[in-house]
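Appendix B, example 12.
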Amino acid sequence: FFFKLPSDSFKYLGWCDIEEHDVRGNQLLCPRVREGPSEEELFFRREEHTLKKRKQVTDTEKWEKRLQENWENCAELNLSFQDLGDLYQVENFKRILRRLIRVERLWLVDNSLTDLSAIRLPRCRELNVNKNHFRSFKQLPKIPQIQHLSLAENNIMTLSGISDFRHTPLESLILKRNPCEFQERYRQLVFSSLPNLKMLDGIPKLPEDCSPPDIRFFYKMCTIL
């Protein structure tokens, strides 16, 4: 027999749809980003009975919900481990990211993200997107004020596009466990592309990281007279 769980009636509700609370978006430490499926999606899932429980939302209620979320005033936010398995969840996730105009520290760890190039985070100084599926620096959001960027355990193949961060205040970069880490003269290439970078993969900039690659190669050669 099929028995519904006590939480079944709340499975498509966001936190802001629950009555009798005064919590705002910028007070949540690690909110789950969820949005219910469309009517068509519910039909194919054979869950159209849930439509009866939904009320018609007015424009005023939509605006009140937007104000309650208050993402525009978030300065620090953790949206990691979202398990974004459906398209409507991904779209709602990006909707929130587009509203983070004041966020300074943002964690998006392990969300299976592939492309956030359409997102702009104008004040973000620290961004952690470890354990995602980025394949290029071009797929990252626009982060002109970035100082600390962590990209560990993605799928970045080459350093192409890394020079886009040359004109940012980037000081610390983590690229551990990306294929590009195994590129010949990896550290030298990164530091030559980012002269202002102070730390790579948790290791401070070393004198040998500043040496031109061709000179180091020359020193390793053996001259036979």
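Residues 215-221 have pLDDT under 50 and may be disordered. The chain has one domain: 25-58+70-207.
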